[in-house]
Write a structure and sequence with these properties.
The complex is a heterodimer of chains A (231) and B (473). By secondary structure, chain A is α+β, with helices and mostly antiparallel strands. Chain A is built from eight helices and ten strands. Chain B is 43% helix and 16% strand. Classes of the chains: A alpha+beta (231), B alpha/beta (473).
């Protein structure tokens, strides 16, 4: 399904927030590698999906009414076998219902557990004066506490992408700090350019968050994504 | 683009100017500022009490714009704000090239009435495709034509730096402080609330103005950010643009809103814009002036390696600190350079490693010049920085009469043969009067000089970044 199609379906349904599955489909269509993902409506479906992907897997609540999945116990990581997956499914649904009994619950998403890499985030927001602006930063505590992020106005050039990555204080971490695996900067630049091109061509997109992206020596993988449409 | 050029050509190079509503209460500031205007000057005023004052200035007054038996290229409007819609209609009727609306009390007042009135005049102007500058502004300044908005502004000469300013004060100050630093305006505009014409229009004009080589901007906000972004990007490829963004942070945004009704926007986004466009950021008038000084009067800065010549040990340490803080490298020199130094440089209590501590070589002007020649020829050096120690030089005049003048002449010759960027730092200490004299002489000979190591280092850094951006992809 193309981005246009996904967006028009959501609009028809009166939704401005796309699901993680929809967001990832759109990003994959834009040429950005995302973890595979499948919606499971039952524990059995979750186990089937997990077996197809191979263990370990991650389960996440899929509900338009729950945006901060981790906060409500809606995310289970590193599930190593069928039994753990089945149990996690029930726990997630239970926790979600407890958190918000009125929440519409689509099910649980199953995705392969990605090998850990350097956590990076890329976001897009619209500035009142300058329109779409991209943000880049290191994930986790560095972005939340230290606000170590950089901005560029869309459209980005290759130089803009390179400079906004280099600009953050945590840049040495991307270069491979103390023998850790470095990130492939060129691939991160590519992702920024692809996001820039995508939002330039999709004025319907109001906000976009890819958080986290795991950056590796020769690839990068989007683990979670969220797209908000203009209302 | 061609359209904007044509539209504003008459306004920036007028052959005739009408001032509507100048009065005693303003000290007839408009008519007086235009006393040396090269073209024809007219006044429009209906208040009989003002007519003798206008007549005493030798300016012919009319009761209506339409009565003036001449084409009007540019009008300044200083009438009460409730009359402005009618006067703008008169301008349109008279086919005036452009009008600057000095009157305030529009959107910047924060009142519903003010906003409505601004919408009204903007609509009148837009519908007629009329060039309305402002409101709440000082309008156009063209020193060559004597088109001024302040009595203190110089006239009768042209320059090569254009200034686009949302503030009248900053437009005026830039035009006054610039010449003290060897910076002369080609044309400038103070444009206030930008109800119709905005920064982008002026930017386009100056981007294509043959007289303008460098563009300075003081800006608080912009109406169409995306248009500004793409226009700035394109023009910055051809001409250096230095941007001073006013209104950062919450309180600053509030001030910008009540000053020019601008939406100040996020400082992080403005910083991104300035970088993406390959433009230079300044944070105050001094930085703006200092940066333009380097752009105008130093050769292109090829890199980040500086050769520093200080007159004493203490200064050699802190000049190095100042340039290192701005992330310059102060490298050791080549063996060839050290050999040249060894042949003449008195090393007792002095040093030529880089930074140079001239010390006992100080009274010998030829040694100082030889030293900076070696620095400039060294393959490890991109820019030569010389401290001029006014306080100590003053005391040495008994050894070397006319030391200052001789030095300046020698520096002029040095600048001519030096292929690299060269700046000087004037350190007055207590000798402020003498420093001012030396500064005037340096400025007259187009040798960039700075008031402190820090300000020199900062300006050089900004310009080095500019050239680095320009020459890389």
């Amino acid at each position: 399904m193309t981005a246009d199609k996904i967006i028009s379906i959501a609009k028809k349904e009166g939704r401005t927030a796309l699901t993680e599955i929809e967001s990832k489909k759109i990003l994959t269509g834009a040429g950005i590698d995302c973890t595979e993902i499948k919606l499971a409506k039952t524990g059995k479906e979750a186990v089937t999906a997990a077996k197809k992907f191979g263990f370990p897997v991650v389960l996440k609540i899929m509900s338009p009414d729950i945006l901060h999945k981790t906060d409500v116990g809606g995310v289970k990581l590193n599930l190593n076998n069928e039994e753990e997956v089945g149990k996690a499914f029930d726990e997630i649904i239970g926790a979600a219902k407890k958190h918000n009994p009125k929440a519409k619950i689509d099910g649980v998403s199953v995705q392969p557990m990605a090998r850990s890499g350097i956590e990076v985030i890329i976001g897009m927001n619209k500035d009142l004066q300058f329109g779409p602006v991209l943000m880049f930063g290191l994930g986790g505590i560095l972005v939340e506490v230290l606000k170590d992020v950089s901005f560029r106005i869309v459209p980005l050039t290759r130089r803009d992408a390179r400079e906004m990555i280099k600009e953050i204080k945590g840049y040495p971490i991307l270069e491979g700090y103390r023998g850790h695996e470095p990130a492939n900067i060129k691939i991160l630049e590519d992702i920024l350019l692809k996001v820039s091109e995508f939002v330039e061509n999709q004025p319907e997109v109001k906000e976009l968050d890819i958080n986290p992206i795991f950056a590796y020596r020769d690839s990068a993988l989007a683990l979670d994504a969220r797209i908000i449409l203009e209302s | 683009m061609e359209k904007t050029m044509k539209r504003l050509e008459r306004a920036f190079n007028p052959r005739s100017v009408a001032v509507v509503g100048d009065k005693m209460a303003l000290g007839y500031m408009w008519l007086k500022s235009l006393a040396h205007f090269q073209g024809k000057l007219y006044s429009v005023q209906i208040d009989e009490r003002e007519l003798p004052g206008i007549a005493s200035l030798g300016v012919k007054n009319y009761l209506r714009l339409q009565d003036i038996p001449d084409e009007i290229d540019y009008a300044v409007i200083a009438v009460p704000n409730n009359v402005t819609p009618r006067i703008i209609r008169d301008c349109i009727d008279k086919n005036v090239g452009a009008a600057a609306l000095f009157t305030s009390g529009f959107a910047e007042s924060g009142t519903e009435d003010g906003r409505k009135l601004q919408d009204t005049i903007a609509k009148i102007a837009r519908d007629a495709d009329f060039n309305l500058i402002g409101p709440n502004c000082m309008g156009i300044h063209n020193p060559r034509l004597g088109l001024r908005h302040s009595l203190d502004q110089t006239y009768g000469h042209s320059g090569n730096v254009a200034f686009i300013s949302q503030s009248g004060t900053h437009a005026t100050f830039f035009s006054l402080v610039g010449p003290l630093n060897g910076i002369y305006i080609s044309k400038s505009v103070s444009y206030g609330n930008a109800a119709v014409l905005d920064s982008t229009d002026y930017l386009e004009y100056f981007g294509n103005d043959a007289e303008t080589e460098i563009i300075g901007i003081y800006i608080e906000g912009v109406n169409d950010g995306r248009k500004f972004f793409s226009c700035l990007k394109e023009i910055a490829r051809r001409k250096p643009v230095v941007i001073w963004k006013g209104g950062v942070g919450d309180a600053g945004s509030r001030a910008a809103s009540s000053h020019t009704s601008s939406l100040a926007g996020s400082p992080a986004i403005w910083d991104a814009l300035i970088k993406q466009c390959g433009t230079i950021k300044a944070e105050n008038l001094n930085e703006l002036i200092d940066t333009i000084k380097v752009l105008l009067h130093a050769k292109p800065v090829a890199g980040y390696r500086v050769g520093l010549a200080a007159m004493t040990g203490g200064q050699s340490v802190v000049i190095t600190d100042a340039f290192t803080r701005e992330r310059f490298q102060v490298p050791l020199l080549s063996e060839a350079s050290y050999k040249k130094f060894a042949a003449f440089f008195q090393t007792l209590g002095a040093s030529y490693r880089n930074p140079l501590d001239v010390s006992l070589n100080f009274p010998h002007l030829d040694r100082i010049i030889k030293s900076i020649d070696i620095l400039s020829e060294d393959e490890n050096i991109d820019t030569v920085v010389l401290e001029i120690s006014v306080a100590f030089m003053k005391d040495l005049s008994w050894i070397n009469t006319n030391l200052f003048d001789n030095m300046i002449e020698a520096l002029v010759d040095f600048k001519k043969r030096c292929t690299k960027s060269f700046i000087t730092i004037l350190v007055p200490a207590h000798a402020e009067q003498e420093a001012l004299e030396v500064k005037k002489k340096l400025v007259a000979r187009n040798i960039p000089c700075f008031a402190s190591f820090e300000s020199g280092a900062k300006a050089l850094r900004k310009v080095a970044d500019y050239y680095q951006h320009k020459t890389s992809v």
